[in-house]
Amino acid sequence: MELLLKKIEQEGIVLANDVLKVDAFLNHQMDPVLMKEIGEEFARLFSEEKITKVVTIESSGIGPGLMTALALNVPLVFARKKKSITMQQDIYTAKVYSFTKKEENEISISHKWLEEGDKVLIIDDFLANGQAALGLLSIMEQAKAETIGFGIVIEKSFQDGGKILRDRGYRVESLARIQSLKDGQIKYFNEELTV
Amino acid sequence: MELLLKKIEQEGIVLANDVLKVDAFLNHQMDPVLMKEIGEEFARLFSEEKITKVVTIESSGIGPGLMTALALNVPLVFARKKKSITMQQDIYTAKVYSFTKKEENEISISHKWLEEGDKVLIIDDFLANGQAALGLLSIMEQAKAETIGFGIVIEKSFQDGGKILRDRGYRVESLARIQSLKDGQIKYFNEELTV
């Protein structure tokens, strides 16, 4: 996706060999026009699939997830990392370890917002080691919902989340696949995509 | 806003005399069409104000905030409740006590995403006692940004956040103002708005 690759090129910052900071447009400041284009692209990619629900995790997945849900005209459900006092029971849960925040979260979704037979598109801002994706998959299995595929804004192909999901037979569509961040250089999986 | 009042009427649940659960369409499952209409309404209300940035707090503010930013064609910035390892310095912070989660959070925004002279519209899903709004105001003051006003999806007028902000001279636009949740009944501030 050209606009996304341009944004990464112009505003992304490589902080270490495995950290790409995109807080200029994705996960702290957010570019709404880019989010809308991302949502429309995921909707286009999965347009044949009769998706009934888009699922993501708070917080950074909400932007791309909401725009995808709007383009597909289905509800968005975002998994919660903390339970509020209005959400204590009848929930599906899974444990997710975050390497960037160095902590384990229990994510949860209310029974009410997933139905058996739901055809779910899971959206997230990043795919790295796949912990969040596996947590959401576990919740989909508990709910007997069908996971149709994953829409990922930025995949770090040098970590193994993408491989794990594809090896399990899931369709994973990543709008930017980064092969390497070595020496502060962003190399894409398909070099011809580099802007 | 008619669509919002209908949604509250049909899908909102009064849990106690002061808790309105709207996880069917606003803060767990999210209705993207409603979010888009909310964003367009806030943009219309503040269309004369030359807003340069929309600011909110993760997570439930992101949906309405992003749609408002899209309609105004300006960036969204969402305050973080936890610092990631990519965000440790050069941040404005404020303490916010959450009555629904019974905990104090330190919210933060990077210096980079607020500029002196920014004309900021603050968006949030709920306004109750005003703690989150006051925390964001403190950050705007630290950044020397100008707070033009507040766009609130649901204001609980029987708590004092709205009064505090209006007494300080801020413009507060709430799409649903709830006067009372007593005995499981939702009463609006302007009864003629009730659907």
Task: Write structural notes for this entry.
Two copies of one chain form a homodimer. Chain A is an alpha/beta fold. The first copy, chain A, has a single domain (36-179), classed as Rossmann fold, CATH 3.40.50.2020. Chain A contains five helices and eleven strands. In chain A, the strands form three sheets. Chain A has a six-stranded mixed sheet with strand order 5-4-8-9-10-11, with helices on both faces. A two-stranded antiparallel sheet of chain A has the order 1-2. In chain A, helix 4 (131-143) links the parallel strand 8 and strand 9. Chain A binds chain B through residues 15, 19, 21, 23-25, 28-33, 35-36, 58-59, 62-63, 66-67, 69-70, 73-78, 80, 82, 84-87, 100-102, 109-110, 112-113, and chain B through 15, 19, 21, 23-25, 28-33, 35-36, 58-59, 62-63, 66-67, 69-70, 73-78, 80, 82, 84-87, 100-102, 109-110, 112-113.
Continuous helix count of chain A: 5
Find the structural class of chain A using helix and strand composition: alpha/beta
Runs of chain A with pLDDT <50, length 5+? none
Determine Rg of chain A (CA atoms, Å).
Answer: 16 Å
How far apart are the first and last residues' alpha carbons of chain A, in Å? 10 Å
What is the second-level CATH architecture of chain A? 3-Layer(aba) Sandwich
Beta strand count of chain A: 11
CATH topology of chain A: Rossmann fold
Strand content of chain A: 25-35%
Question: What is the helix/strand order of chain A?
Answer: HEEEHEHEEEEHEHEE
Please tell me the total number of domains of chain A.
Answer: 1
Characterize the quaternary organization of these chains.
Answer: homodimer
Average pLDDT for all residues of chain A:
93
- Overall 3D shape of chain A: globular
**Which chain pair has the greatest contact?**
A-B, 41 and 41 residues
The CATH class designation of chain A is Alpha Beta
Strand order, sheet with most strands of chain A: 5-4-8-9-10-11
Helix content of chain A: 25-40%
